[in-house]
Design a protein that fits this description.
Layout: H1 25-28, H2 40-46, H3 59-73, H4 76-79, H5 84-98, H6 108-132, H7 140-154, H8 168-174, H9 197-200, H10 205-252, H11 261-289
Helix pairs in contact: 3-5, 3-6, 3-8, 5-6, 6-7, 6-8, 6-10
């Protein structure tokens, strides 16, 4: 279980439709019960991924929690007007409907605490994936591997290696949801309100000034957090560029003369991709030097696919 301190959870609503089971059916099957689970002696080890105060969380439980949170938070017909307690009770009720019936009984507080860990870790990992996108010579698998490496580096302590990203099954589901579709932290209007009574009750000057001061303080904190996030992303991009250069150099250094036909064709194509991307970058750099804005019009004929 992560030891990180995730930021406060908000519950944004949108027109994003309720996710269908087809989007996560393959993920749910990862934790389907096997005959061995009928043996009490093996049931504990079959779900021994994350140990906390209670029973361990299985992949099925965690993906079901992601489904339940999205279902409640992104459905205005269900979530609008609920307070925090009501929101998480709704999440808990929906989670019980879709989770494996072999799963242990868990409290509302247990689901909320687990979600905070998942939300923080997945949001962080998605930021690293976004930093890896668009790099020449790397495909989707390369981006994920680069993000895993950046995640390990970000969790490394003095003299100790970083930890592995533990929530790939949750990432595969949440990456398509609106909550995680943006690269940087955005301030959104909470869909879950504590009370509407304060909105219609006139406020005095002291309360109004205090509220204004609180809003300014919150905005300043949000700006500072965004600045830190941008700096972290900049550092991540710089590290990724170094790793990318090493990756491209390794590809270009491959001797294809001793390879079998399939491997030879693959590496020749990858080498051509790296070369095309490099040539395009040189043309754009020359365009900027010539003062034409570097719009890339001079790279006709280079295939960067």
């Amino acid at each position: 279980m992560s030891g990180s301190n995730p930021e406060s959870t908000t519950y944004p609503f949108s027109s994003h439709p309720e996710p269908t089971l087809s989007r996560s059916s393959s993920l749910m099957s990862m934790d389907s019960p096997s005959p061995a689970e009928n043996d009490p002696s093996s049931s504990a080890s079959s779900r021994s991924r994350f140990r906390g105060r209670g029973q361990t969380w299985s992949l099925n439980e965690e993906v079901s929690l992601c489904q339940a949170w999205v279902h409640i938070s992104e459905n205005p017909a269900i979530g609008t007007g609920q307070n925090r307690t009501g929101f998480w009770k709704s999440v808990h009720d929906h989670w019980r409907l879709i989770v494996d019936n072999r799963s242990p009984v868990r409290s509302v507080e247990s689901l909320e605490a687990r979600w905070k860990v998942i939300q923080y870790e997945v949001s962080k990992f998605i930021g690293f994936v976004e930093a890896a996108k668009g790099r020449s010579g790397c495909n989707g698998a390369d981006e994920i591997n680069a993000a895993r490496q950046l995640f390990r580096e970000s969790t490394a302590a003095a003299g100790k290696p970083g930890k592995e990203f533990q929530f790939m099954h949750c990432y595969e589901y949440l990456k398509e949801c609106q909550k995680f579709s943006t690269r940087y932290i955005q301030k959104t209007q909470p869909a879950v309100v504590e009370s509407v009574a304060d909105e219609v009750r006139p406020t005095g000057n002291k309360k109004a000034k205090a509220k204004q001061a609180e809003e300014h303080a919150n905005k300043r904190k949000a700006d500072e957090l965004l600045e830190v996030q941008q700096e972290l992303s900049k550092i991540a991009r710089q590290k990724l560029e170094v790793a990318q250069e090493a990756c491209e150099l390794e590809i270009m250094s491959k001797d294809t003369s001793t390879m079998n036909p399939i491997a030879k064709q693959y590496f020749m194509m990858r080498q051509q991709q790296v070369l095309d991307a490099y040539m395009k970058k040189q043309v754009q750099s020359q365009s900027v030097s010539n003062g034409d804005g570097g719009n890339g019009d001079g790279d006709a004929g280079f295939d960067t696919q």
